[in-house]
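Service request form, structural biology core

Requester: graduate student, group of Dr. S.
Request type: structure prediction, single chain
Budget code: on file
Notes: please return the result as C-alpha cells.

Sequence provided:
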Amino acid sequence: MNINGRSLELFFIDGRANGMLTAEVFNWTGHVLRIPRTQIKDGLARKEARYTGVYLLFGDKDGVPTAYVGEAEDMGERLRNHVAGKDWWDDAVLITAAGDALHKAHVKYLESRLVEIAKDVGATPLENGNVPTRSSLSEAGEANMESFLDTLLMVLPAIRVDAFLDKRRRVDGVSKSTDEKVAVFECKLPRHEITASAVLRGGEMIVKAGSEARSNWIADRSKRTHYSTIFDELCSNGTLVMHATGKDVRVFSQDYAFTSPSAAAAVVAGRSTNGRTAWIEKKSGQTYAEWEEAQLNKVTPE
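Core staff response, request fulfilled:
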C-alpha cells in the first residue's frame, strides 16, 4: 500500500474534458477552477470567482505560449478587467480556499512564490515583469502557505498546467550511475557525431547531462509541433547549450526528464522521431520497444 498517495477529484462541470472543471484534494482546503475564456460568463457566475485568491492566465502571445500570475480580493472583478485589457489568453485558473479562507497576505505570498517558481522553471514565458514582493506572514503562516503550495503544484499538472512543473533533475546517481538495475539507453546520430544517454526512472525518460543534440530544430518550422516547442523552451532556458568546443551541436547542461522516449528522441534529433526505435538499451542492444517487450514478458500475474 502506498501511504504517500493522494486522492484528486476532478469535476467536469459541463461534462466536457476541455470545458470548465474543478479540482480538489482530500483533506486540502484549496479549490481550483479552470475556465476556458469561451465560458468566462458562466465561470464568473460561480461563487468561487468572487473569493480572494490567485489566478493564472494561459494562452499564446505573438505565437509564443505565455502565462500571467495575479491575485485579487475579488477575482471575478479582476478577470472582467483582463477580458477587456488582455486579448491573448484562452484559459483562466482560479485558486481559492474553502469558505473564502485566504486573505490578502496569503494570496500575495502565493502570487510571489508562483512567479518565482515559473521563472525558475522557465517552461512558459510570463507576462509578469518582476517577481512581486512577498507579503509579511508569520512563521506559521508561511509554513501553511508552503504546505498549500505543495499540494497545488501536484494539482496543476493534473489539469494540464505545466508552467510550474520542473523537469530538470538533480537525482543522485543519474548522470554517473553505476546501478546495474537502472536501464541505460543511447540515441545516436552517427552522421552528425551526436550521442545522447538516458535512463528510465520513475516513469520518466531522463536524458543525462552532457548528452548531445542537434543545434537547431531542422523540421519545417511552419508545422509547429509539441516537440519543437519543447526544443525551443530547452534552448531558451539554458538546458540545451551550444557545445563549448564550437562543435555545431547542443549539449544538455543538466539531467532533464521527458514524459516519453519519443519526446526525448525528438529533442536530440531536432525533428519528430520514434523514440521506441531510436533509443537502444546499452547492455542488450535492444531497441526501447524490444526492451519493453522483454520486461513485460518477465511480469508474473499475482
